[in-house]
Amino acid sequence: MIVTTPVTEAGAAAMPAVVHSDRTTRPQTVSAAVDPLYHRLIGAVGGHTGTPVIMNTSFNGRDEPVVCSPRDALATFHRLPLDALALGPFLIRRPAGFPGEAGA
Predict the structure, then answer these.
(1) In contact, 75 and 92? CB cutoff 8 Å
(2) % residues pLDDT > 70 (the chain)
């Protein structure tokens, strides 16, 4: 993630969370040959939202180390108000109305 690229106005409107204030982004490409599961996930997101983009950010809570294992990921998911967690071939979602639910 050392290269930045300009984002068009349409791109900034479609994916505002990944665009910096100078209207650039740090793109990462994912090849189906190298990571087929993640590639399929990005395609599924695109099918659902119309924009095949996933924001890649550090996965950790405030003042916590970055998640390094499935156990860390599950513990962090349990503590933080996240809607879902993609973990390998699994998608873990909170039940509607669950305490701490991101949308509740």
Answers:
(1) no
(2) 92
CB 15 within 8 A of CB 26: no
CB 43, CB 52: distance < 8 Å? yes
Closest to 28 (Cα-Cα) out of 45, 8, 42: 42
Q: What is the pLDDT of residues 53-74, one digit of tens each?
A: 998 888 999 999 999 999 999 9
For the beta carbon of residue 18, count every other beta carbon within 10 angstroms.
19
Helix (H) or strand (E) holding 15: none
Q: Using an 8 Å Cβ cutoff, are 19 and 26 in contact?
A: no
User: Closest Cα to residue 77, out of 89, 56, 91?
Assistant: 91
